[in-house]
From TrEMBL:
<keyword id="KW-0547">Nucleotide-binding</keyword>
<protein>
    <submittedName>
        <fullName>ATP-binding protein</fullName>
    </submittedName>
</protein>
<dbReference type="InterPro" id="IPR027417">
    <property type="entry name" value="P-loop_NTPase"/>
</dbReference>
<keyword id="KW-0067">ATP-binding</keyword>
<dbReference type="Pfam" id="PF13671">
    <property type="entry name" value="AAA_33"/>
</dbReference>
<dbReference type="GO" id="GO:0005524">
    <property type="term" value="F:ATP binding"/>
</dbReference>
Length: 161
């Protein structure tokens, strides 16, 4: 029997540092990094103007990537997914991938106060001006209203960072 790859994914409010940590963990563990932001920007440029647009296109992307991620994990490839697991519904998709692949996993929860997230968003707007229209304090609070911290009863191996 071959070893399964490990799936690492993230939960944390907007601006918590999920993408930065995902890149670092992927580099350290020699894992394949899949970034939702990169995929969405490449496949749907200038198409996300609202939270509804994001939800619709994110679902479409995950429906395409699911079988490929499962195959990679079954082949023994470690995968770090910089895709949010910020709601129970988003985490359910990861649960389905984990169950189908039969692989070990880690849900990394970046538990940051709102003030830190907002400060990091401000810095990100300076470094990535193309995100300035979306990475605002107003957007932060609108998206944070949907945030659900992971709970033990969801059955994930959770690491709090």
């Amino acid at each position: 029997m071959t070893n399964k790859g490990r799936l690492t994914f993230f939960c944390g409010k907007m601006g918590a540092g999920k993408s930065t940590l995902a890149r670092r963990l992927a580099d350290q563990s020699n894992s394949l990094l899949l970034s939702e932001d990169q995929w969405l920007a490449a496949l749907y440029p200038d198409s996300i103007h609202s939270l509804n647009d994001y939800v619709r296109l994110s679902r479409r992307l995950k429906s395409v990537l699911r079988s490929q991620v499962v195959s990679l994990l079954r082949m023994g490839v470690n995968v770090v997914m910089d895709f949010p697991g910020n709601t129970r519904t988003q985490r359910q998709w990861f649960r389905e991938v984990i169950d189908e692949a039969g692989c070990p996993h880690e849900l990394v929860y970046l538990d940051r106060p709102d003030s830190v997230c907002i400060e990091q968003l401000s810095k990100r707007r300076e470094l990535e001006p193309e995100r300035a229209k979306f990475d605002t304090e107003r957007t932060f609070y609108a998206i944070t209203a949907y945030f659900q911290a992971p709970e033990d009863n969801e059955g994930f191996k959770i690491t709090i960072h």
